[in-house]
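Standup notes
- DV: blocked on the single-chain target, sequence here:
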Amino acid sequence: MQAETFGIMIFGVTALLVLVPLWLMPVLNRRRQERELLALNKMHRFALRHNTFVRNHQGLRYVVVLGKNGFYYMLGGEFVPRERLLKALGEENEKYLLKAEREESQHGPAPGLITSPA
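- DV (later): unblocked, structure below
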């Protein structure tokens, strides 16, 4: 192999190793931000529908709603069980989840349409 060919190959590999991360990292970061925004939008619509709000604890966004069959928990745009939300918040931060449940239980579930006989 000639020295010029070897130098061109080294330059090409070096350029590839430098330019791919410079192009790939912003694309991946933008996709992650779009996913987070879609999840936040989904949680916001769910919270508005149930007359509550999206809660934020140390950057972790979640929704707690009291329905007819008990509490519903949403984390990252998905419905999750209480244990998973508590694990995401941290066991030592259970007081924030209890506070949210207490606030939601004061209002009660939204009643359905009730008709009475005439």
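- Follow-up: Helices lie at 3-49, 82-89, 94-107.
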